[in-house]
Structure formats: structure tokens, C-alpha cells
Recover the amino acids of this structure.
């Protein structure tokens, strides 16, 4: 899918960007967590973000959809452009930004409502201004989203059950991905989406993420280097709030250009 | 002491006895609550039992609005008017109190931060520290003329006045329980909703309120319990005339106020005296029921 979109553009050397940051600096109170981040993350591929704990990878991820601001003491300098628009421009409306940029969290966090309403939650928020959504339309949306995350067969008979009980973590995480899809985001941010799952669940969710590439630009934070290697096309290595290296995944793991990257992927720290 | 190995671990020194002593002391403190509750219940029951067995006519007690315990030839003991008055005031008070209290709780739990939040919490708890007789003063000297002037009615003591006072009195407990209910909603829900593009209000309305609904229900029930049990302020604000209220300006008499006003003037052991205890038993059951329900609902929340 990815190769299609690239070959369709007539000027191959300039790939379209999903996220483009310019001199991004971020402070939590007086603590600076990000230093001069300049990243060009390409559209339609999976980019993984690796680095030791506290290197700022989650912070960066959470500043793309501005969910960081919930904390109230976050300060930012520089710019993050999502689809060529600075998300920190004063006219940006958070609801619209988050419609474009979906997020999957570390712990699966289905809302305490039915499975069906979980899938429809975002869709209702963005589309219900004109009036109620017809039941047939809603049914179609729910089925389509659950099919895309390979949950339809397990869930079709219990759509009205609560999503917060009786589901395995793997199913919950898939549901959390499914509820992003009806909103039709162009970017999916994933903050260690498999770290709460067992190996089987991890494999299943990874496979799903791989299925979704091309249709969405995916930026995934992971602690698990094997996962980054398996499941991403480009890889970014961060250390102490700075980007050390950003290159195609194969290249980064086989011939890293920086000493720190090599040390990290060999497991000397982190 | 025997220095052999067998006794190496037998070191019952001062600390050991202190520890045991405290354990026993704490045990008695712990069960004293049960002892007192049972004791009070037994006492009230014993005092009211004579009336319930000999003089009470169940139909008359609950269905007659005529409370004439001092009548010489034909005393009647009907509490219907008082139940109606108490219930009417409680319902109206909750209708006033709940929206404001839950609104305040939403503001404190979801919007206010730092100093604002702490100040507000202290102020609201301060409301709970005002003695109930002071609320009675307010009812008599501020609300009464205010209601007379505003609504152009002959008397400002009655259902409306009592309900307003009761709403203010119940507000602190309802607010703080509702706030606890909001705090118990995991922040991940809010984060998930906001990440999907929900605004603060949509998040509260669609996620936080439904998730907190059991806690809110029990907050409301505790408010109702407060309404049934409140005595002094209601005695002063109600007008204290036996009457089934048909408008919010009508005077009424509360169950609790009847006991407070009449108990001192009855002969111990007389049917009148015992009938007041029967009212006490009735109140005891109602508040017990309400508190138990609230408790069960809160437990339900914890289980998920």
C-alpha cells in the first residue's frame, strides 16, 4: 500500500510529511523534557520511537495531539506541523486536531459504556452536531470498525455489554484502536500499545498495526526494540530529550551512525 | 529466667504487654459503636413498645392526619400530616440542593485547581459546621420576611422556607460525597475521551457523570436522610402547625420537630409519651433504610 502512494506522486524525492516539527522545546514546569526536536515523519508509514525511560519519547508523542496540556504546567516553544498546519497556532481547535490525530494509550482504556458506544463515541462527537445518527448507519460503522481490528466475530453478539468488564486486555486494546477508525484520523499515535499485553496479545496487536499501515501514518512509542525492528519502517532513537538518530529501521539497527544508538540497541543501557 | 534455648524467643517484655493491652482497648473501642447503636435502638423500642402494642391503631397512625394526643375524651395519633410535611420538604429541598451541590462538585473536582479548589472545599465544609439552631435563626429572621415580601404571602414559615434552609444544610455533605464520586472516576476515562476530541463538557456529560452516577445517587440519598432527621432548624422554619401542605407556603409540622417540642411536656410512660417514641422508631427505620441503601450503592460502585 505504501509503495502505491509513493509511486503515485510524480516527484519521488519529496515524500509527504505527516508530522514535521521545528525546534520543539518542551518544559514541565521548570524541567525541560524536550530539546530542539526537528523531525520529519513521513506519511503512510509506521515510524517507531525508541529510547530509554525518561528520554522524552512519550512526551513528544503526547505533544502531537496536545493531550499533554491536560497537566496544566506544560510549556512549549517551537512548532509541530501536522499535515502542514502548526497545531500550536492559536486558531487551532483541539477537537479538530484530535479528529485528525488519534491516540492509543499504554493501558487499554475503554470507556465505561457499551462496546458499541465505545466505537461510536468519537464519531458521535464529531458528527452528531447535525442531528442523531441513524441506527443503520451506526450499525454499519460499528461493524466496519470492529472488522478492521479483527474483533467483529468475537464481539458481534455482545455489542451492548460494558466494554470495561469481561474483555481481555488484548481485546480492549483492539477496541481502543477500533474506536479511532470511524473518526477517520490521518495519524495514529500509539504510546507503548503492547506493554500491558501478554506475548500472544502483543503479536495480535502488532499484526493489526501492521495491517493499518498505508491507510494511516502511525507513530509508535515502544520500549521493546524487537518490536520496533519487526513492526516499523522508520525508527527514531531519542536520548535525554534529544533526537539522536532518525533513519529507516533496518539501517538504524544494522548500521547505526551514532555511538549512543549502537550502545542502546546492543543493550548497554536503557 | 531459664537460660535454655527453648525460651530464647519467649521475650514477653513491657512492649509485648503494651501491644496486647492496646489491641484489647482498640477492640472495645471498635465494638462500642455497635453496642451504642443496639442500645439506643433497644431503649427507643422499649419506650415505644407499650404504645405500639396497646394504643396504636396501625391504620390511624399512618393514615390519619389528626395528631391529638392530648385530647381528653378521644385522643388520636395520626402522623400522616407530619409524614407528608417532612416528605414534601425533603423532596423540595433535594430538588433545590442537588443541582447546586452537584454543580459545585463538578467545578471542584473537574475544573478548579490549586488554591481555588482548597478554598472552596474549606468554605463548603464550613457550611456544615454552622449549628442547626443558627440556621433556624436565619429561617426566622431573614428568610421569613424575605418570603413574605417576595411572594406577598401572609406568612413566610412553611415548606418553602424549610426546604431552602434544609437545602443549604444538606449542601456540604452532598457536595463532598458527589466530589468523592467524581474523584473515583479514573482519569484515564477523561484522557481517553479528550483524546477522541471530546470537549471538557462533553467529557463530563458523556463519561464522568454516567461513571459517577452511583456515587451521586448515594449523595442524594444521604441528603434525603439529612432532611428526614433534621429537627431544630425545621422546628423553627416550618411554622409547626399540623397540616397536610398543599402549597409551598403552607405551614407544616415535621416528625422530628413534634418529638422535640412535645416530649418535655408529657408524663413519662403515658400513651402520649410512648407515641412520640413510636415516631422515633419510625424515623429510625427510615434513616436506617436510607443509609443502608446509600451504602449498598457505594459498595456497588467499588465492585465496578
Amino acid at each position: 500500500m505504501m509503495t502505491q502512494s509513493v509511486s503515485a506522486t510524480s516527484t519521488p524525492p519529496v515524500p509527504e510529511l505527516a508530522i514535521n516539527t521545528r525546534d520543539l522545546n518542551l518544559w514541565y514546569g521548570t524541567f525541560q523534557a524536550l530539546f530542539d526536536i526537528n523531525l520529519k515523519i513521513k506519511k503512510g508509514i509506521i515510524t517507531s520511537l525508541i529510547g530509554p525511560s525518561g528520554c522524552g519519547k512519550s512526551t513528544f508523542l503526547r505533544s502531537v495531539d496536545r493531550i499533554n496540556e491536560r497537566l496544566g504546567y506544560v510549556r512549549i516553544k517551537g512548532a509541530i506541523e501536522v499535515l502542514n498546519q502548526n497545531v500550536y497556532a492559536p486558531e487551532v481547535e483541539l477537537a479538530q486536531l484530535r479528529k485528525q490525530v488519534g491516540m492509543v494509550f499504554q493501558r487499554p482504556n475503554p470507556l465505561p459504556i457499551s462496546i458499541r458506544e465505545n466505537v461510536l463515541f468519537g464519531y458521535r462527537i464529531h458528527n452528531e452536531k447535525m442531528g442523531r445518527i441513524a441506527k443503520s448507519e451506526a450499525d454499519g460503522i460499528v461493524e466496519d470498525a470492529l472488522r478492521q481490528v479483527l474483533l467483529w466475530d468475537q464481539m458481534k453478539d455482545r455489542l451492548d455489554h460494558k466494554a470495561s468488564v469481561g474483555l481481555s486486555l488484548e481485546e480492549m486494546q483492539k477496541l481502543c484502536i477500533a474506536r479511532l477508525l470511524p473518526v477517520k484520523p490521518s495519524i495514529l499515535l500509539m504510546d507503548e500499545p503492547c506493554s500491558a499485553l501478554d506475548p500472544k496479545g502483543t503479536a495480535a496487536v502488532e499484526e493489526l498495526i501492521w495491517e493499518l499501515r498505508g491507510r494511516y501514518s502511525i507513530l509508535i512509542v515502544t520500549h521493546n526494540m524487537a518490536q520496533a525492528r519487526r513492526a516499523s519502517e522508520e525508527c527514531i532513537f531519542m536520548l535525554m530529550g534529544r533526537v539522536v538518530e532518525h533513519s529507516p529501521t533496518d539501517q538504524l539497527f544494522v548500521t547505526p551512525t551514532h555511538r549512543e544508538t549502537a550502545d542502546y540497541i546492543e543493550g548497554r543501557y536503557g | 529466667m531459664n537460660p535454655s534455648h527453648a525460651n530464647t524467643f519467649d521475650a514477653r517484655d513491657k512492649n509485648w504487654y503494651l501491644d496486647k493491652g492496646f489491641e484489647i482497648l482498640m477492640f472495645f473501642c471498635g465494638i462500642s459503636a455497635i453496642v451504642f447503636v443496639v442500645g439506643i435502638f433497644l431503649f427507643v423500642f422499649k419506650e415505644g413498645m407499650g404504645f405500639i402494642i396497646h394504643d396504636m391503631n396501625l391504620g390511624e397512625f399512618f393514615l390519619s392526619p389528626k395528631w391529638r394526643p392530648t385530647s381528653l375524651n378521644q385522643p388520636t395519633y395520626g402522623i400522616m400530616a407530619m409524614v407528608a410535611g417532612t416528605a414534601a420538604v425533603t423532596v423540595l429541598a433535594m430538588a433545590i440542593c442537588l443541582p447546586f451541590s452537584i454543580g459545585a462538585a463538578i467545578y471542584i473536582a473537574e475544573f478548579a485547581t490549586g488554591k481555588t479548589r482548597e478554598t472552596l472545599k474549606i468554605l463548603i465544609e464550613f457550611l456544615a459546621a454552622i449549628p442547626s439552631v443558627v440556621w433556624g435563626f436565619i429561617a426566622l429572621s431573614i428568610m421569613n420576611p424575605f418570603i413574605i415580601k417576595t411572594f406577598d404571602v401572609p406568612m413566610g414559615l412553611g415548606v418553602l422556607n424549610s426546604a431552602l434552609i434544609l437545602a443549604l444544610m444538606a449542601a456540604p455533605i452532598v457536595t463532598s460525597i458527589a466530589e468523592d464520586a467524581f474523584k473515583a472516576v479514573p482519569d484515564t476515562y477523561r484522557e481517553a475521551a479528550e483524546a477522541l476530541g471530546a470537549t471538557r463538557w462533553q467529557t463530563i456529560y458523556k463519561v464522568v457523570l454516567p461513571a459517577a452516577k452511583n456515587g451521586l445517587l448515594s449523595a442524594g440519598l444521604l441528603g434525603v436522610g439529612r432532611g428526614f432527621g433534621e429537627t431544630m432548624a425545621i422546628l423553627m422554619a416550618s411554622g409547626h402547625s399540623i397540616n397536610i401542605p398543599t402549597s409551598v407556603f403552607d405551614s407544616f409540622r415535621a416528625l422530628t420537630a413534634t418529638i422535640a417540642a412535645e416530649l418535655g411536656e408529657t408524663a413519662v410512660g403515658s400513651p402520649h409519651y410512648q407515641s412520640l417514641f413510636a415516631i422515633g422508631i419510625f424515623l429510625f427505620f427510615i434513616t436506617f433504610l436510607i443509609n443502608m441503601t446509600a451504602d449498598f450503592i457505594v459498595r456497588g460502585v467499588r465492585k465496578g
Q: What stands out?
A: The mean pLDDT of chain B is 91. Chain B touches chain A through 19 residues (CB under 8 Å). Strands of chain B lie at 67-68, 76-77.
